[in-house]
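Table S7 (text form). Paired inputs.
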Amino acid sequence: MLFVSSIWTEQKRMAADNTSSVTEFILAGLTNQPELQIPLFFLFLSFYVVTVVGNLGLITLIGLNSHLHIPMYFFLFNLSFIDFSYSTTLTPKMLMGFVSKKNIISYAGCVTQFFFFCFFVFSESYILSAMAYDRYVAICKPLVYMVTMSPQVCLFLLLGVYGMGVFGAVTHMGNVMFMTFCADNLVNHFMCDIIPLLELSCHSSHINLLVVFIVVTTGIGVPIVTIFISYGFILSSILRISSTEGRSKAFSTCSSHIIVVSLFFGSGAFMYLKPPSILPLGQGKVSSVFYTAVVPMLNPLIYSLRNKDVKVALKKTLSRRIFS
């Protein structure tokens, strides 16, 4: 009798899997405590305003000042564009969740948000590795810097950056498209991300998790190895510099990039390279907030406050506007 009952239960579950379909999702958001919704709304709204102003301001400065038209700032220009874009992909929907009773997103909207999120995150990983390579050439091979980092080489590296962005986005989206979702459509997150979507899948997700691990390792592991190798050579070159002033100058040209790399990859690895059993999704949300809202806000501040060229460009641009 128990055996017949279990078969009947399994048949009902399979029938539900085959007949039900999800056309929209409900995003749970950061917290379910009502008293925190409005304070969090204004907090993340301020983050987003600083992100937009900082990154668009840096893009404008680099575009308007010819002395910044060199490879280092070419990549920084694209980093600011990527930070602005993926923050804009996620933050407005997050803000809506703080002021609405139900933060509903359509299936197509969820997949679209997830695609662009993956595209820009993968692109950021590889633009940071391209910037590390640029610093390696600048410090280790300064006499051939302009030849090695020619416009053609920079363009080739940029195509590789966005090509890997497309690879990561298409692979992850394909993973999601092959999932079957049942009646439960509550996404325990403030955005459409792969881990909470896997939790809603009707079927076993071991293969999906393996695909996620492989793709994320490619997106995080390869750039990290590239960055470590670049900075290994950079450190070796710096230690061979005899003067203290020369060492200090060499370190200062890399310090901003090292801070940005540590913030981005540290929070990303904490979220995606640990099994869900070790990292509860609630803690994962905090990590996600850090690299989706805080890091894009901090990047332009780090590069502007610690960079003399950017400060000079800002003063020149402001003085031109005042006199005009």
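Next pair, protein 2 of 2.
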Amino acid sequence: MAASALVSAWGPLRPGVPGLCRRRPPRGLWAHARRLPDPAGSGRSVAAVSGPGASGTDRYCLELLRKRDYEGYLCSLLLPAESRSSAFALRAFNVELAQVKDSVSEKTIGLMRMQFWKKTVDDVYCDSPPHQPVAIELWKAVKRHNLTKRWLMKIIDEREKNLDDKAYRNIQELENYAENTQSSLLYLTLEILGIKDLHADHAASHIGKAQGIVTCLRATPYHGSRRRVFLPMDICMLHGVSQEDFLRKSQDKNVRDVVYDMASQAHLHLKHARSFHKSVPVKAFPAFLQTVALEDYLKKIQQVDFDIFHPSLQQKNTLLPLSLYIQSWRKRY
């Protein structure tokens, strides 16, 4: 996918994007947003979020999310109170699977862990979860919302296939991976919210794909530090870029064009997801709050001229809690 073919979807290739004019949030919104726990917050704040009757397994999931998936943690905090604990369990399950690849030295060990989670899901649906905090909370979520087993298994199967340290052959392969992991997670979140709607499913599919592409881009500096490159080979070949170019952190224009093409594809998925805005039930909007973080990254990478190794891209957005709260208040995604 050449950069020139995507200019109309993204806008100018280089920085200089005009700011967006938005409604002013109501007074006191800053105070509400500031109550969202900080990533370095104390255990006391986690307990407060969990509630006085929270179990140890519930707090375990909260803490795991707070440390390993802070953006997902913040998004889950803004879900309706009755759905929150189930969303925490679901995202903690995803974190457990996501960190298998980086925590094992041999693929065989990774396969064993994936097999554990496959058996765990089977046991959860037989009402006999193992004595593992995430498994217990997942069982509660399944019982409470009658979650579809197929989506949980898709996430495991796709993560298992991804244990190989191979670059994606093309952008479609990356999107397929994102559909089976990130989009499946969103389908389950919609079930937690009690949403059964075709338009919401379509939006979830596109947002999940955008999430997968952005995650691949964001992780590139980390993977590069470990001598790994997972960016789609078809786009790299299109611009005459090798894996070595990314390993030595090249800032050549053709390297930036690879990043531009991928960022543009993520931008297009967000645009498609929002095209369903008027048809998607308002009750489903909280499930899609992660679009705030995705759009924030895409704007930042455009501002630095698609230099994927720019230091500013590695900095945490301290205003993210406020941005999420405002988007939640506006009932938009």
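The mean pLDDT is 88.
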